[in-house]
Design goal:
Blueprint: H1 3-7, E1 11-13, E2 24-25, H2 38-45, E3 53-58, H3 65-86, E4 89-92, H4 98-107, E5 112-118, H5 119-124, E6 136-140, H6 149-160, E7 166-171, H7 175-186, E8 191-195, H8 199-208, E9 225-229, H9 234-245, H10 249-297, H11 313-344, H12 347-369, E10 372-375, E11 378-379, H13 384-401, H14 432-476, H15 482-527, E12 531-533
Parallel strand pairs: 1-6, 3-4, 3-7, 4-5, 5-6, 7-8, 8-9, 10-12
Antiparallel strand pairs: 1-2, 10-11
């Protein structure tokens, strides 16, 4: 007997609406089960607090055998492991057909399955049977398929009790599933469509991609809609499912804030780089215009570039009239751009955001591994949750100090944030070994790689300085004034020295951090301790 079979016997719940107290029966009754029966169902299942819920809706008799086989494989390989580890209640239409039959056959040993079916529709269709692997079957009043949806929504909401640990899984489906989605969306439930399963599921995916659709989805414009391909890797599907049914809202919110900080830091870094390149190009343009202006004002017949200039004085006068304003305006533009770059695109802004993101990620991994931060030599047991909350608050304050007001909506979308690493299940607990593998090894690799890049950049700066020094030597041997060569050489030497010093200093710091992390890793592996000193 499985774990679930030991806790629950297969039975049906029927409540006569005229009775004040519910009556639970073991046989199947063709009777009404109104909203008043929900407490009886929860009591029968032993549910006293919020519990994760997955509602599976979709194709009953229109799903092809090929798609049915793919859905079965998805349930067995990807969905079943998540349900088994998360104690999820699965609610379906309860009949022995389509996706409901597949759910009963593949998930009954790892989750509690509750079927909700309209009694009148079952009576009018004797060929449709109740799926026997469901642990509880509830019959509602109604003669049409889909009339049970309102009860289904109420039951699922009562099980989660407002916690954000539920999802509606849409597989294939027809007109009934289309109407059911409206009920759940109106109640605030997220919809996860299995793309490639056909029917309404694929139509809803097409709607989210702004393609031509069969059904009218306009009412779902602002709904919480997500999708996953039926052929996606099992690990990716498991992570998506796990995110929806996890009850750890603190960890999910921490990851959501991290993704927002990480995305903004990356954007800021690219923006800063573009500003720096623009300023460098502007500087070269200024130098070119000044030299061009010098050539026009003081043409020398035996100069190396003299044959290239227009021969008539009238044309030279026109060029002179054009380049003089440019030569005056460009230095002013460079000064303004430098000032803007200093205030808007300074490195400090993105470094603050990157530091906040990495600090939050570090605390997330400590939280997952159950690491207790020992301060002053004493450990505070159970402080991981408190430390994670404090780090989230600190990250928000640091983002404000960088000039970026972090705005994250934690209510409109419940799905896994876009931008998380694909390799790790970010909600799974970590052992010491997995912590060092997923976190410390990742950081050591990043620091070493970044240090090598910085040292390579420092080498390129030296090469660029040598080339510009050669160019200044070329200018010194031409008819231009010596100040041009001296100015280029002086600016080049100063810029190369400062940039190389900055890059070398950063590379040294990354090397030191990498060595420190390697030492921490060695200590953790040797001691196997879940406490670290800060």
């Amino acid at each position: 007997m499985s774990r679930v079979e030991e806790l629950f016997e297969r039975q049906s719940v029927r409540v006569d609406p005229d009775e004040e107290s519910p009556r639970i029966a073991r046989e199947m009754f063709d009777a009404a089960a109104g909203p008043s029966t929900i407490p009886a169902v929860l009591d029968q299942l032993g549910i006293t607090g919020p519990i994760p819920v997955m509602v599976i809706i979709g194709g009953a008799d229109r799903m092809s055998s090929e798609i049915g086989d793919e859905v079965r494989a998805l349930f067995e390989r990807s969905l079943a492991p998540v349900l088994e580890s998360s104690a999820v209640v699965v609610i379906t239409g309860g009949t022995d057909s389509g996706v409901m039959a597949i759910a009963g056959q593949t998930l009954s040993s790892v989750a509690t399955l509750v079927g909700v079916s309209p009694s009148g529709a079952l009576a009018d269709n004797p060929s449709v049977k109740i799926q026997s692997d469901h642990h509880l079957s509830v019959l509602t009043d109604g003669k049409a398929w889909g009339s049970e949806t309102d009860y289904m929504v109420r039951l699922a909401t009562a099980m989660t009790q407002g916690a954000r640990c539920g999802v509606v899984l849409l597989v294939n489906g027809g007109s009934v599933a289309f109407e059911e989605i409206d009920y759940f969306v109106e109640a605030g439930w997220p919809i996860l469509s299995i793309a490639g399963s056909g029917g309404v599921a694929d139509d809803l995916v097409a709607f989210t991609q702004q393609k031509r659709v069969k059904y009218d989805w306009k009412s779902l414009k602002n709904a919480d809609l997500d999708q996953i391909k039926i052929g996606a890797s099992p690990s990716e599907i498991r992570k998506r499912f796990h995110w929806y049914v996890s009850q750890d809202e603190l960890l999910k919110s921490a990851w959501t804030y991290f993704v927002a900080l990480d995305r903004r830091a990356n954007w800021q870094r690219v923006f800063n780089k573009r500003i720096r390149i623009s300023l460098q190009l502007l500087s070269l343009l200024i130098l070119s215009v000044v030299l061009f202006q010098f050539e026009i004002n003081f043409p020398i017949k035996d100069a190396p570039f003299y044959p290239l200039w227009p021969g008539t004085s009238a044309v030279r006068q026109i060029l002179k009239d054009v380049t003089v304003p440019i030569a005056v305006a460009l230095p002013i533009a460079l000064a303004v751009a430098a000032a803007v770059g200093q205030s808007v695109a300074a490195d400090r802004g993105w470094r603050v955001l990157r530091g906040a993101a990495e600090a939050l990620k570090r605390e997330i991994y400590r939280y997952r591994a159950g690491l207790v931060v020992a301060k002053g030599g004493s450990s505070s047991v159970g402080s991981a949750r408190r430390d994670l909350k404090q780090t989230i608050d600190s990250a928000l304050r640091r983002s404000v100090s960088s000039g970026f007001l972090l705005s994250v909506d934690l209510t409109s979308r419940r799905g896994r944030p876009i931008g998380l690493d694909e390799g790790d299940d970010e909600l799974a607990p970590l052992s010491v070994a997995s912590y060092t593998s997923h976190r410390i090894d990742e950081q050591i690799s990043y620091f070493q790689k970044t240090g090598r890049k910085l040292r390579a950049q420092a080498g390129r700066v030296v090469i660029a300085g040598v080339l510009l020094a050669a160019f200044s030597g070329f200018l010194a041997n031409t008819y231009y004034a010596p100040w041009a060569a001296i100015a280029v050489l002086g600016v080049t030497a100063l810029a190369a020295y400062l940039e190389r010093s900055r890059l070398t200093d950063r590379a040294d710091r990354y090397a030191t951090a990498s060595a420190d992390l390697a030492q921490i890793k060695t200590g953790l592996n040797a001691a196997g301790s879940l406490a670290i000193t800060q």
